[in-house]
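Researcher: Go.
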Amino acid sequence: MARAALGWGTRDLARNANVSPDTVARFERGENLKSTTVAALRAAFEAEGVEFIPDNGGGPGVRLAKRTTR
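Model: Structure:
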């Protein structure tokens, strides 16, 4: 969902997280990855304003952070 919210393809996420597109595909299939790899993927999303919402009874999710104007 985070990738779709940003309009990113698999290669976009791979480039921004400094991982291979195959790693992104494995992640999206639910395969186990190293915790450092998952952290890199999450950091790439968060750098673009994605917020991860914990499970609060409705299930976990993501949203885009509100942009502040200066």
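Model: Residues 35-47 form the longest helix (13 residues).
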